[in-house]
Amino acid sequence: MMKQRKVPLRKCVACQEMMPKKELIRIVKTPEDEVLIDLTGKKSGRGAYLCGKVSCFKLAQKNKSLDRALKHHVKPEIYAQLAEDFISVEDEFLAVKESSVDE
C-alpha cells in the first residue's frame, strides 16, 4: 500500500478549522510590513490563513483575527484591497482547487 503523502494542514484564522494548506488563502505580512494576499504561498514573511469563504474573510475583519495572527495592525484600506483581491482570487482559487482534485 502506498503511504499517503502528509498533507500540510493550516488553520483558518476566522473559523478555526484545520484544512489542507492549498485550500486556504495565505495572507502575508512581508518583512517590509506590507500585508498582501500570497497565492503562491511562497512569499517570505509572517503568514495567516483564511479559508476561501468570504464569510471567513468578513469574520476575520470583524474580530481582528487577521491582525492578531499577523501581529500587525491591518489597515482598513488593506481590508478593502483584500476584499477586492479575495473576490478576484476566489475564482482563480476555486479553479486551482478543482484542478488539484484530479491529480
UniProtKB/TrEMBL annotation:
Pfam family, one: YlxR
Limits of the YlxR domain: 10-83
InterPro entries registered for this protein in UniProt: YlxR, YlxR-like_sf, YlxR_dom
Superkingdom of this protein's organism: Bacteria
Name by which UniProt lists this protein: YlxR family protein
Organism: Paenibacillus mangrovi
